[in-house]
Amino acid sequence: MKIRSAVLREMVAEGPFADSKPLVISELELAPPGPGEVLVKMIAAGLCHSDLSVITGVRPRPLPMALGHEASGEVVEVGSGVDNVRPGQKVALVFVPSCGHCSPCMEGRPALCEPGNGANGKGELLQGGHRLSHAGATVNHHCGVSAFSEYAVVSARSCIPIGDDIDPVEAAVFGCAVLTGVGAVVNTGQVRPGASALIVGLGGVGLSALLGALAAGANPIVAVDVHDSKLDLTLALGATHVVNARDADAVARIRELTKGGVDYAFEFAGSVPAMQLAYAATRRGGTTVTAGLPHPNDQWPLQQLSLTAEERTIKGSYIGSCIPARDIPRYVGLYRAGKLPVNRLIGEKLKLDDINAGFDRLASGSGLRDLIVF
Question: pTM for the full model?
């Protein structure tokens, strides 16, 4: 079938992307779903820094590539052997499909699925190969989803059913921002009720983590960013304190507010200075978690002695250390109960043709979680 899709053919280091137009809206040929695969009609797709880092070359991927990895959609057709979803069902899409058989999957760590991550790195689907082409030439898949497309063929293991009582547009953010942010707090960090928490970087993932910290009962919660508008939003959402990262005494201020530092610090900005701030603001015996994705060449200078002398813990968190089939229904349940108001994190709703300008907005750091709505 013929579909319209936003295709990255050349990486562009700097904007404005509205002028350079790195994403070209192209008509692609989409093959039907094979065994274990699903044809999905896209409903909405989130603009995420992980997409932006591919556009700018910070995270190189094979090109040309149909971009986008955070989305919701409706199942149109299923291939043979698919029994977890059915046509007409709404789904959230997950950007690391898990095979269920490799060592990480069997250990309950599907975010680290070896075949899933391997397929993503090659621009293929979990079952192998490609389903997208243009003028007879292969077009690569992004994270097995390629969400900035009218339709996509994905692995059934990328699909998590959602109920009809949730807005399917808002459901798009559950597959990345919510899984990553909330999961970093409750799965990776395992924040205890009454423990103090720090959220550094208030993009879609960081704001989701703030909601996760509130749902987990953390107190106090300090939010850090360079944009005052986002700091104001976090106060409205329930943060107890805010600190602008540009302040020269930001760390000292956080340690003062939390009587010596936080129990749990979470870094989502994807930069070395942000990680340094998060670690410096963590108390003795505390835990620092990073889900940020800096440039592969960036190095973080660590005072190794503090790990031992202060019994520090540092953890990395990928997709919130999640089990999608377990966690997305849980988080949707919290959303229904009013405990996880992710709708308040959603910014502009854009058309596919406006996607390059949308990434300018994302790169500025001032917006919320903008969505492409089909």
Answer: 0.96
Instruction: Work out how many domains the chain is built from and give that number.
Output: 2
Do 31 and 162 belong to one domain?
A: yes
**Amino acid 350: pLDDT:** 98
CA pair distance 184, 316, nearest whole angstrom: 9
* Residue 325 covered by a domain: no
Per residue in 10-64, pLDDT (tens digit) is 999 999 999 999 999 999 999 999 999 999 999 999 999 999 999 999 999 999 9
51 lies in the same domain as 121: yes
**What range does the domain containing 265 cover?**
180-317
CA 8 to each of CA 140, 158, 334, 353: distance values in angstroms, whole numbers, following the listed order:
10, 22, 36, 14
Per DSSP (E only), the strands in the chain are 2-8, 23-30, 37-46, 65-66, 71-78, 90-93, 132-134, 137-141, 151-155, 159-161, 197-200, 221-225, 241-244, 262-267, 282-290, 313-316, 346-350, 369-373
79 with 92, same domain: the answer is yes
